[in-house]
Amino acid sequence: EQMECKHLKKRNMYQTLITALAENIFTITINRPEKLNALNSTVIRELGEAVEEIYQNTAIRAAIITGSGNKAFVAGADISGFAGLNREQGRKLAKEGSDVFFRIENAPKPIVAAVNGFALGGGCELAMACHFRLCSDLAQFGQPEVNLGLIPGYGGTQRLTQLIGKGRAMEALLTGNLINASLALQYGLVNYITPPNELLEKTKVILNQITGKSPLAIAKCIAAANAAVGNEKGYALETEKFGESFGTEDMKEGTAAFLEKRKPVFKGS
Ligand code: COA
Questions:
Q1: What is the model's pTM?
Q2: Which of 40, 151, 160, 215 has the most CB atoms lying inside 10 A of its own CB?
Q3: Where are the beta strands (DSSP E) in the chain?
Q4: Positions marked active-site
Q5: Whose CA is nearest to atom 36 of ligand 1?
């Protein structure tokens, strides 16, 4: 019963997340299913807070990030919040999300993405910031920002290149085409595919193997493996170019067209 109370208390802490702690595994469920769990400023702020909980709560030995509903993990940053932002505000938007994603990547405990559906734009970037990924056979990955006259802003140009290689990443970034679950497995973007109702269970089986080991050794492995990849200049350039996009007519047209459910007409200005 005490566990139940704790759950309820945790649930009420966040507006856009459901969190639960069981057997030392902390599950964060992004919960805006009517907007396909799109990342607005509240979700980004609350994700940051939940990640700090992972760092600080010694009862947490591993974490899972997943999405609510059976359609989407996260369908991207919330496009409806983009209208009217200028270049500097665009840059700030990218920086705030990127900072949270770096905290995920550099966490001393494993944080794994259980991708239950669309992982697009910021959703794909969130999954890639996690230490590794599993997905359901319904999952689709992609960086479709180019269709909005925009580029990824939460590390997508960098981590997609690291994870699947430059040629495949270039194609995905430049076409905006989606990568289905079996291609994601072939590319090494995910480690396993499961039926939708087995995704969390399979993720927990793997995490249970990790939580029994020395947390000190786990933290050192993560830090050392992270040191094998990454290029600070690349991330900074991405943030800068994301901000620049917000000063273009093409980005205004692309995002307006998405929200008006029509095809954009890009003029290259
Ligand atoms: N930001 C804001 N709202 C979003 C969103 C996003 N990234 N992705 C989906 N939504 C909203 C839709 O506007 C729609 O809202 P409405 O019901 O109020 O009109 C709702 O979520 C359902 O999405 P819808 O597009 O109707 O579902 P679908 O099944 O036809 O298409 C997708 C699903 C994922 C293919 C489509 O939603 C999509 O392309 N999303 C944007 C992906 C993207 O470009 N992400 C990068 C953002 S930088």
A1: 0.96
A2: 160
A3: 17-22, 25-30, 62-67, 72-74, 111-115, 118-120, 132-136, 140-142, 179-180, 192-194
A4: 125, 145
A5: 75
The percent helix, strand, coil of the chain (3-state, each to 5) is 55, 15, 30
Check residue 208 and give its pLDDT: 98
Q: Model confidence over 84-129: pLDDT tens digits? A: 899 999 999 999 999 999 999 999 999 999 999 999 999 999 999 9
Do residues 174 and 106 touch, judged by C-beta distance below 8 A?
no
Decide whether any atom of ligand 1 lies within 6 Å of the 181 Cβ.
Answer: no
Q: What is the band of 12 on the pLDDT scale with cuts at 50, 70, 90?
A: low
For 158, residues 6+ apart whose C-beta sits below 8 A from its C-beta are 230, 231, 234, 235, 238
Could you read off the pLDDT of 42-67 as tens digits, one per residue?
A: 999 999 999 999 999 999 999 999 99
Residue type at 2 in one-letter notation: Q
Q: Rounded distance, CA 133 to CA 113, Å?
A: 5
Phi (first) and psi of residue 194, to 5 degrees: -130, 165
The residue to mutate among 16, 31, 32, 36, having the most atoms of ligand 1 within 8 angstroms of its beta carbon, is 36
- Residue closest to 30 by CA, chosen among 131, 22, 21, 39: 39
Percent of the chain surpassing pLDDT 70 = 96
Spatial distance between the Cα atoms of 142 and 48, rounded to a whole number of angstroms: 23
Centre of ligand 1 to C-alpha 62, Å, is 30
Which residues are CB-contacts of 30 (< 8 A; sequence separation ≥ 6)? 16, 17, 37, 39, 43, 47, 65, 66, 67, 68, 73, 74
Kindly state the tokens that stand for 76: 């991207």
How far lies 223's CA from each of 93, 131, 162, 220, in Å? Answer: 27, 11, 16, 5
